[in-house]
Amino acid sequence: MRIESEIEMVIIRIVDLLMWLSLLAIACVTPYFILYFSIYQIRILKREWRPILAKTIISLIVWLALSLVMFFALFFSFIYGDRFDNVPTLYEEIEVMLILVGLVAVYSLSGWGLYYWVKGRVTNDVKEQNHIKGLV
Question: How many angstroms separate the CA atoms of 51 and 55, rounded?
Answer without folding.
Answer: 6
